[in-house]
Specification:
Blueprint: H1 2-32, H2 41-58, H3 62-78, H4 89-107, H5 114-130, H6 132-153, H7 158-170, H8 179-195, H9 208-217
């Protein structure tokens, strides 16, 4: 009888864990579905808040913390000079701070991970774009170092070449920018996207629409 009760208890635990895992996966799938269609800072902030609620409920999964960090940093970038808006450090820095807090939590739950370093690169870029003249020497090298680490960890990660291409696209030629080099990097990124196979359907896949946008600008 004791063995039977133990077996039943084990089955109930497994069933509960399976239900929780399915609930988590469905929540993530729903939140991820529209990422490539987000085009405003407000939309990215809403997405970040959704992922943070999932992260707070799960606590042991790195992906929701990662996506929450991504949402905050994308909101920051769209509020900075990258999107053509006037940089406002008082508005952008809190978003970068939040993204840093969340990506640190994600990093603590996964091994050396190219995707984590892509977001770290974006955070450094966001801080720099809030006040380029005064922050370039501090955050420019941090962004470059994080991107090189992302590439070293996974040379097949298409987001690495997207971020490299954006740097070349937005940087003035006198400071090393080049639309020609940007186009080559976006084309390389697109090839990586075409062959890239994420570990699961909730692992990072975002960015292809951005590559296509930039290539459309560089025809």
């Amino acid at each position: 009888m004791k063995k039977i009760l133990t077996s039943i208890a084990c089955l109930l635990i497994v069933a509960a864990a399976s239900a929780q895992s399915e609930k988590y996966t469905k929540a993530m799938q729903a939140a991820i579905a529209n990422l490539d269609s987000l085009h405003t800072a407000e939309a990215w902030t809403d997405a970040a808040n959704t992922f943070q609620r999932i992260a707070d409920a799960e606590k042991t999964q790195w992906l929701p913390y990662y996506y929450a960090a991504l949402g905050n940093v994308m909101s920051g970038l769209m509020s900075s000079g990258v999107s053509g808006a006037a940089p406002t450090p008082d508005k952008i820095d809190p978003l970068a701070d939040k993204a840093q807090e969340l990506i640190s939590k994600a990093a603590a739950l996964t091994k050396e991970n190219s995707e984590i370093y892509c977001v770290k690169k974006m955070i450094a870029t966001t801080r720099m774009m809030a006040d380029p003249m005064n922050r370039y020497m501090t955050y420019g090298p941090q962004a470059a170092e994080a991107l090189q680490k992302a590439k070293a960890l996974n040379p097949e990660n298409p987001r690495v070449y997207l971020l490299e291409g954006q740097d070349k696209f937005y940087t003035p030629e006198q400071f090393g920018g080049s639309k020609t080099e940007a186009k080559a990097l976006f084309e390389q990124s697109l090839k990586k996207y075409d062959s890239y196979k994420p570990e699961t359907d909730i692992h990072p896949q975002w960015g292809k629409s951005q590559v296509l946008y930039f290539l459309g600008q560089l025809k």
